[in-house]
Amino acid sequence: MNSSFLQNTSVNQFQIPWNHFVIDNFLPQKQFKKIQKQLCSIVGGYQKRENDLFDLNFMFVPDLNLAKFFLSDDFKSFLEETVQEKLELYEEGLVQLRLMTPASPAMPPHIDDQEDGRSLVCIYYLSSDWHSDKGGELWLHENNVKTKREESKVIQPLENRMVLFFADDTNWHSVTKVKNWNRYSIISEWIVQEAQ
């Protein structure tokens, strides 16, 4: 996959409730539609982690060219320039295709596991035809479960949208339950290389 489009990608940075980035129309439309058609038709073959509170359906991205792109030095450089941090791929997770269906539970407010230190989470939404009644929204919370909706930032899972945020012990987030729709996304996680 040609990565030259990254040079012209428009990134929106937000500070409320905490630092995060939203990139709409991330991939060129022709490339995106091809990937969307391929990946959003996969309904079987997903794995689940044992003792997973969120009951996540995931698989490693089956499109080799797309996986190579998300693992490429060009994509890593794009992320590093965007967030102004040095990064290394979290190899345990690699690049995953995730599926949330109406049978999937909501993801209540949580912070991500920080065994390997602070990390950058990259979520890329694939599913088309999202409306607010379909759920699957990412909520960014000022603080844990006490945060009300009007105090949270709600990010809609629009097709071809990428969201970046740092996972640490202060960035609480949640995902609403999906209804009458399947929410496909690609997830990768990058470990922030702290200055020595």
Set down the secondary structure blueprint:
Layout: E1 12-14, E2 20-23, H1 29-39, E3 57-60, H2 64-71, H3 73-83, E4 87-89, E5 95-100, E6 107-110, E7 119-125, E8 138-141, E9 153-155, E10 162-167, E11 172-175, E12 183-192
Antiparallel strand pairs: 1-2, 2-10, 3-5, 4-12, 5-12, 6-11, 7-10, 7-12, 8-9, 8-11
Q: Would you kindly provide a written description of the structure presented here, covering whatever features stand out?
A:
With 196 residues, the protein is of the alpha+beta class. It has one domain: q2cbj1_9rhob like domain (Jelly Rolls, Sandwich), CATH 2.60.120.620. The protein is built from three helices and twelve strands. The longest helix has 11 residues, at 29-39. The model has no long low-confidence stretch (mean pLDDT 89).
What is the overall shape?
globular
- Can you say what the CATH homologous superfamily is? q2cbj1_9rhob like domain
Q: How far is the first residue's CA from the last residue's CA?
A: 34 Å
Order of helices and strands: EEHEHHEEEEEEEEE
Largest beta-sheet characterization: 8 strands, antiparallel
Look up the CATH topology: Jelly Rolls
Put simply, the count of helices is 3
Mean pLDDT: 89
Q: State the helicity in percent bands.
A: 10-25%
Q: Supply the helix-strand structural class.
A: alpha+beta
Residue share in β-strands: 25-35%
Output the radius of gyration: 16 Å
